[in-house]
Specification:
The structure holds two protein chains of two kinds. Chain A is mostly helical. Chain A is built from four helices and no strands. The two termini of chain A are about 20 Å apart. Classes of the chains: A mainly alpha, B alpha+beta. The structure holds flavin-adenine dinucleotide.
Amino acid sequence: MYLNLNRNLADPDGFYEYLVNSQRHMNNEEANRMNARLVLILCNQVGDMDTLKAAIDMASDPKKAM
Amino acid sequence: MFQTYQYPEFDYQQSEEQSAGQVARHPVVVIGAGPIGLTAALDFAQRGIPTVVLDDNNTVSIGSRAVCYAKRPLEIWDRLGCADRMIEKGVEWQIGKVFFKDDLAYTFDLLPEDGHKVPAFINLQQYYLEEYMIDACKTSNLIDLRWKHKLINLTQEGDVVTLTVETPDGVFQMEADWVLACDGANSDTRKMVGAGFSGQFFQDRFLIADIIMKANFPTERWFWFDPPFHRGQSALLHKQCDDVWRLDFQLGWESDPEEEKKPEKIIPRVKAMLGDDVEFELEWASVYQFACRRIDKFRYGRVLFAGDAAHQVSPFGARGANTGVQDIDNLAWKLKLVMDGDAPESLIDSYHEERAFAADDNLLNSTRSTDFITPKNEASRRFRDAVLDLAEVTEFAKPLVNSGRLSAPTPYQDSSLNTADESSFGCKVAPGTCCTDAPVEVKGKDGWFLNQIGEGFTLLVFGDEDASDISVGNVSARVLRVGDDIEDASGTLAERYDGQPGTVYLIRPDQHVAARWRYFNDNKVEAALKTAIGGA
Ligand SMILES: Cc1cc2nc3c(=O)[nH]c(=O)nc-3n(C[C@H](O)[C@H](O)[C@H](O)COP(=O)(O)OP(=O)(O)OC[C@H]3O[C@@H](n4cnc5c(N)ncnc54)[C@H](O)[C@@H]3O)c2cc1C
């Protein structure tokens, strides 16, 4: 597998709205915890360690990773 | 403040009915001479309806509100004969840039397709737009524009609406078969019929300033998130005509609107944005709070609502006036058919059906943009900033950046006036969408497809297929044959409509597709025409 950074969301605005609305009534701590859970769930979905490493590097410093 | 524009003052004239003290009955009275009321007057008059317009003021929109006008409203104004001046005066643009902090995060190009009469977008101050439409109204003897006429009460009984109107000469009453309320976001008419108007208010304030400067910034839409010159907030720069530039500064909810409007407060903000050495004059400034709201029903008996009176959107995406003009496009032909008894009154209900659907689409897009620009809480700001960080370096995050989704027509794909396809077509137009323009030749001269349709119903026929005009009662659909009435030398029309020989389109007077087939069948066309006029 490789890290797909191309457009892959069919409805970007709809996705973003759903994501942000899910935290609309959360305080900062609650939202942080949810984000952590979401990261873990999505990592499990991806599965492949090389892809995950590339994604983690990308997220920790986007400019350096490119 | 310095001014590039001289506000016209229109003369108040006492009407005959007021001076005679005799109540007159009018086919339609439009409340409000803003962009939507004026468009309504022009469209009604073009369809042969004598129209009275009442406005409580006697000039055009003060200060600049709307700036960007999209292709579809320009096509509608072109049908109404007033787009040329707008396009000539307006500034065309197609590039937008989005900056985050110090960097360019994202560039978009509207990439207008060739072979359309009107441009994808123009920028023009709202006062010019209104002035040009008022000039056009003056050339019609069916339009009676009445300045300094304020609607103060309205009642309905049976099919008569009684209006109480205040002028400098006092209060008088008039009657109307139909009333179209285009009296803006704070619509008095809406309150008079007791309509609901609900949605979302955004807890934020924006400084909107128009400045005059001779600078060679490109004619592009520049939007900043959290720029160094305006930390933690957003800002926008866009060119209008006469060297006037529109600036927006997000101020935050805690800001004091009265303080922020003062030139001594604005000038340093502008200097921080443009640099100390740029010379400019402040033309106009105001502080807004934005909302996204919709009326519950576009029709209350014989009173109809359009424009901001029916739906208010935040300006990100330039959807306010743009969508209001399309309300009128949708309504005018329906009202004419119903007034003439050629279609059932229920056709008017399809106005609510189609335009409330479009309003919801506009509200959804405007709300999403405003939510992105004005994050609700720490959590949404974090996602917003993450998107912007990633948009600089990855493709996937770019479509998530939302500094406004620019106005585009909403297809009425599920409208009760449509007849579903029975064959497949390989093109973007479909039942419920507005027609796409294309270059055509008419009687040996270069012309445009959209200029050939829109008076009544059209049957667009490709190839030699036998076809004839079809009528339902007094309503006819007239054949427009490609290769005879119009020539499609470039093949663009055939391509945009997948016009294989035999293809037939039934097109509504508002240039929307009602039905289409791969062959001509008079019974089918008749049934579709009946459906398109509300099932006569
Ligand atoms: C900062 C800003 C930027 C914007 N940018 C854009 C943009 O780029 N593109 C876009 O499409 N839209 C934009 N808009 C929205 C646009 O300005 C409005 O959608 C548009 O003016 C609505 O037109 P209207 O005719 O419905 O109402 P209005 O323009 O509000 O006109 C209503 C008219 O009714 C009259 N009236 C009110 N009450 C009465 C009464 N009781 N009796 C008689 N007359 C009455 C008023 O005097 C007025 O003339 C922007 C708005 C703002 C504030």
